[in-house]
Design a protein that fits this description.
- The complex is a heterodimer of chains A (183) and B (252).
- With 183 residues, chain A is an all-alpha fold.
- Chain A contains ten helices and no strands.
- The chains are: A mainly alpha (183), B mainly alpha (252).
- At the A-B interface, helix 1, helix 2, helix 6, helix 7 and helix 9 of A face helix 1, helix 3, helix 4 and helix 7 of B.
Chain lengths: 183, 252
């Protein structure tokens, strides 16, 4: 089922934002997310035959793109912790986007929140690629367990284990914040 | 006050909103009589409520160039990816032409400088040897990096859990072992003796992983962990990767 470039352009335009944010959640930074999202679309174009449905079915197409993104991410991931530490520090108080547009009256509260975000994003670097993928799909994108499992091509029980390990790791990494904020 | 470990996983599931059915009922009735688990659930729920994705928007121009770049790659798949980055279709043609001219001029200048420094290097017969060696080296570092990820994953897995997804890991280990053996033959016995020895150690460990009998073969997994420790293979991979970065860095 070959697809014309003009039709595929519509697919890219319809899904590029959703896919880009998924890729950014997976990779933790803009540049890797951009590369990954572009790779996904190129792979999708050449593997359009494997799409079991119509290009008009937005939800189905996005689920298919998401699966390609997850496979591509997990296959290509390298254990470069320093890179991940650097990229997840993007939520630093000085550069936090949300902070820059906020009402100045709650400055202290926002600074506190940005500080917590900063530590949280750094803590994400300790998660393995699979833990981060499962956590991203469930916690950031709200996918049910079975859909997360299908997206990662593993059993539901595996997803539960990955999520539990991810939660415990984050809890361990952020233990120093626990007394003041999480207890 | 510590919470009950038997409910640990269900507490995480509850905090993540994925616990249901009989498990949810069991936990609820347990929580009613266990202040430690209630406190743990409260802490974990509070933690997760602070973990948000970054949703800052890229600049609007990013989206225009994004679509163009994807479509250029789709329509001209033979064009190397770096050219799309250097000359995105969204740039005015004059800028793209100027950038191309600058790139070619820089290439010529570098080529001339290289020939002046190495006047004896005029034979094209040396190139294939150089390419094979470079490809083998590049392949070796890719195998080292992937093996490091695999080994770290296995070493850091909780013993009590056995080895989840062992079959998938075994397939990767087998592929990497085969690749290690191939690369061992391609590397130079003299200049790359250390890398060859590392590939040999790695191949042995990878083959052990590939032949564990099941995910519950705890002694087998422990034996592999011991092997990783004894051979210091992770440390050696770190050293080689570090050496590669140092070699690639420009001298002051």
């Amino acid at each position: 089922m070959p697809v014309s470039p003009s039709i595929f352009r519509n697919v890219v335009e319809a899904h590029q934002r959703g896919l880009y944010y998924l890729c950014r959640d997976l990779t933790g930074n803009h540049h890797d997310a951009q590369d990954l999202a572009q790779d996904v679309f190129v792979k999708a174009y050449h593997a359009i035959d494997s799409l079991n449905g119509s290009l008009d079915e937005g939800g189905l197409v996005f689920a298919w793109l998401r699966r390609i993104a997850i496979n591509t991410f997990l296959n290509s991931r390298r254990a470069k912790k320093h890179t991940m530490t650097q990229v997840f520090s993007s939520g630093h108080p000085d550069t936090d986007h949300e902070n820059s547009h906020a009402d100045p009256s709650g400055a202290h509260e926002r600074a506190e929140r940005a500080n917590v975000n900063h530590h949280v994003h750094r803590a994400m670097t300790v998660l393995s690629a699979r833990e981060r993928t499962a956590f991203t799909l469930r916690h950031f994108h709200g996918l049910p367990i079975d859909e997360t499992a299908a997206s990662m091509d593993v059993a539901s029980g595996t997803i539960k284990s990955l999520l539990h390990r991810a939660t415990k790791k984050l809890q361990h990494e952020l233990d120093f914040l626990r007394e003041e904020r999480f207890a | 006050m510590t919470h009950c470990t038997s409910f640990d996983e269900h507490i995480s599931e509850h905090a993540l909103g994925t616990l249901s059915g009989a498990d949810a009922e069991n936990l609820e009735s347990h929580l009613a009589g266990c202040p430690a688990c209630r406190a743990e659930l409260k802490a974990r729920t509070a933690l997760l409520s602070h973990v948000h994705p970054d949703r800052s928007e890229p600049e609007e121009a990013f989206w225009d160039s994004f679509t163009d770049t994807v479509m250029a790659k789709v329509e001209r798949p033979d064009r190397p990816a770096f050219l799309h980055t250097l000359f995105p279709a969204s740039q005015p043609w004059i800028i793209r032409v100027a950038a191309a001219v600058l790139l070619i001029a820089t290439g010529i200048a570098i080529g001339r400088a290289g020939l002046q420094q190495n006047p004896g290097y005029t034979s094209s017969e040396e190139e294939p040897v150089l390419n094979v060696s470079t490809a083998a080296l590049s392949g070796t570092f890719e195998v080292l990096e992937r093996s490091r990820t695999l080994l770290l994953d296995l070493v850091n897995t909780d013993s009590a859990e056995g080895a989840p997804n062992l079959e998938q890991r075994q397939r990767v280990a087998e592929e990497l072992a085969t690749r290690s053996a191939e690369l061992y033959e391609q590397l130079s016995p003299g200049e790359q003796a250390r890398l060859r020895a590392l590939l040999q150690d790695l191949e042995l460990i990878l083959l052990q992983i590939a032949h564990i009998e099941s995910g519950t073969d705890i002694p087998g997994i422990e034996m592999i962990r011991d092997g990783v420790d004894r051979s210091a293979v992770l440390f050696k991979i770190e050293l080689e990767s570090l050496g590669r970065v140092t070699d690639a860095a420009p001298s002051p």
